[in-house]
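User: Hi! I have a protein structure encoded as tokens and I'd like to know what sequence might fold into it. I'm fairly new to this, so please keep things simple.
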């Protein structure tokens, strides 16, 4: 979390703009009557990929611009298929009980960072690598998310204005988490999903 604040120091403008743009587009598309749900997947999945790529580059100190948000549309099929496959797996695990669904969603938490870094992977490979990478790190990832609960409550008290700063902060922290566990993750040979 401290590393994230250091990365964002003096650079809040563009990350806030990307977070606002992402939220406005995703929420706007989802509110369209009758087709909002389908459009939120079709438009949302490539935006998620661009969103993750933006914050991965930002966390590494690279030059970033709002145009990175649109890069996911160049890999439309992979982003949508990864999104849908992840949704189906988490849904199937959630049908058993809520806890396995939560564990599955945490297992696939690095999927879009992996896809942002290597767009040659298939959606199944992306999810497999995310699951392998998160082996032994699920609890740390969960605890990282818990550390933001106080900030989320504070943002609610500010009528949502605080989310302008919290979204970039959280996403940069998750990108830093990805880089931290990437080198320590297990080899990618397992075919297990």
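Assistant: Happy to help. Inverse folding works backwards from shape to sequence: for each of the 193 positions I chose a residue that suits the local structure. Here it is:
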């Amino acid at each position: 979390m401290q590393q994230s604040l250091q990365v964002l120091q003096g650079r809040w403008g563009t990350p806030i703009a990307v977070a606002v743009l992402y939220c406005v587009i995703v929420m706007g598309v989802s509110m369209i009557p009758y087709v909002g749900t389908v459009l939120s997947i079709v438009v949302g999945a490539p935006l998620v990929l661009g969103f993750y790529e933006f914050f991965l580059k930002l966390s590494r100190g690279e030059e970033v611009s709002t145009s990175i948000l649109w890069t996911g549309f160049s890999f439309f099929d992979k982003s949508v298929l990864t999104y849908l496959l992840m949704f189906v797996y988490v849904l199937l695990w959630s049908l058993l009980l809520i806890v396995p669904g939560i564990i599955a969603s945490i297992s696939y938490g690095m999927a879009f960072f992996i896809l942002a870094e290597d767009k040659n992977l298939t959606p199944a490979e992306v999810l497999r690598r995310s699951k392998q990478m998160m082996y032994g790190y699920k609890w740390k990832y969960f605890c990282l998310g818990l550390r933001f609960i106080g900030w989320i409550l504070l943002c609610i008290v500010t009528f949502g204005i605080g989310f302008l700063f919290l979204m970039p902060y959280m996403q940069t922290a998750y990108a830093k988490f990805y880089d931290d566990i990437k080198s320590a993750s297990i080899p990618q040979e397992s075919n297990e999903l």
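A useful reference point when you look it over: The chain has one domain: 2-182. Feel free to ask if any position seems puzzling.
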